[in-house]
Amino acid sequence: MKVWRVHAWGQPPVLEEVPDPQPRAGHTLVRTAAATVAHVDRTVMKGGFLQPPPLPYTPGVEAAGIVVQSDRFAPGTRVWLRGGGLGTRRDGTWCELIDAPDEAVGLLPEGVDMALGSAFFSPCTSAWVALRHVADLQPGERVGVTGASGAVGSITRQLARAWGADLVEAPSATEPVDLLVDTVGGPVLEQSLSAIAPGGRIVLVGYTAGEQVGLSLPLLMQRDVRLLPLNMYRREAQGRAAAPQLLELLQDGTLTLATQRFTLEQAVQALAWIAQRGHRGRAVLAFD
């Protein structure tokens, strides 16, 4: 099968041919239809992940496809894949045939296409958990979102509106918000502190604008603002529990998520595309 592999930290992946994986207990073999290219893939490739996989390894933490062999799912079943260490502790999804732990596999409804099934989990569950579990969003609260054009930001806005929040397009000291969901971090987070109402909170979801931040501690304390990080690896169970409801919302059109498709051979171009500021949607390798 064709597979992308990383042989050294900080180096781009290489497309290779390797033998197909063989069936084994506790694992599901999936013929890949689509695999997502994500920021976490860039982080792991740099060698900066907490528990990096052994080299060489195959990137990719999300995918969708058709079951080939499994003790849990019938052959031909449409599924999505995320978790179980895919692409972080073991080989991931940028390959034609995925050997996935059973717990990483979920059912994909017929009405959700493969690209969307591959791309939905990270942005949709991040937005859901950030609003519902971390922020404890209440109807009528004023909410701002940084990086609203990105996948997580877009879904966060859609869910917040559906749950009765009052969206503020440009939070400021004169139009503060009760909750800011920050998907970009860096200097954007620093500048946003004065736009939070006293007693409000900030949920930090990402740091694409910068990994370092300098906050005014007196201002943070005076305004009594809570800074709450979202760790989806620790909260993965909450995300997985929400996945069926999120897929229903995507299927009926309540939520929309844009995808940008690349061929299997264009993984390196997809990595460059997601590194560009202002890109919209999620990059997906299409295997058809």
Automatic annotation (TrEMBL):
* PANTHER family attached to this UniProt entry: SHORT-CHAIN DEHYDROGENASE/REDUCTASE, ZINC-CONTAINING ALCOHOL DEHYDROGENASE
SMART domains associated with the record: PKS_ER
| Pfam families listed in its UniProt record | ADH_N, ADH_zinc_N_2
Gene Ontology terms, MF aspect: oxidoreductase activity
Q: What is this protein called?
A: NADPH2:quinone reductase
For this protein, the parts annotated as crossing the membrane are none
Signal peptide residues on this chain, from the entry's feature table = none
Highest rank taxon of the organism: Bacteria
Domain Enoyl reductase (ER), chain residue ranges per copy: 10-285
Q: Which InterPro entries match?
A: ADH-like_N, ER, GroES-like_sf, NAD(P)-bd_dom_sf, Zn-ADH-like_protein
What SUPFAM superfamilies is this protein classified in? Answer: GroES-like, NAD(P)-binding Rossmann-fold domains
